[in-house]
């Protein structure tokens, strides 16, 4: 589920802002801004970092699933994934703030469905790490009984 949530970030729009008076629109996706009726400056920055972090997080999650024989490695990969998801959320906030400055400062932009998926992925990652840790404790307690 975590990997699917992060892959969905790549396909869904993350943030959108519309100016009703000038009919200008600005949408943030994982790979860049799309503008309608607005000329974008070249100083926005590398928005593709959002897509890179989301794709890396999905890849780590897929790899983590198949490391079931080494729970220590799974916990390490879960920690790495925590950092990647947090970086994705940080990049969202940074670039949505940049987008707010590009179009009518008095209007607020809206976070769309793609924005909330990393929060779900973060929760799923924390739950996975918790249950991996619990499984490791169960195996250690069974080894003590032998």
Automatic annotation (TrEMBL):
UniProt keyword annotations, A-Z: Membrane, Transmembrane, Transmembrane helix
Pfam family, one: DUF4293
Superkingdom field: Bacteria
Membrane-spanning parts: 44-63, 75-95, 107-128
Protein known as: DUF4293 domain-containing protein
Protein species of origin: Hymenobacter sedentarius
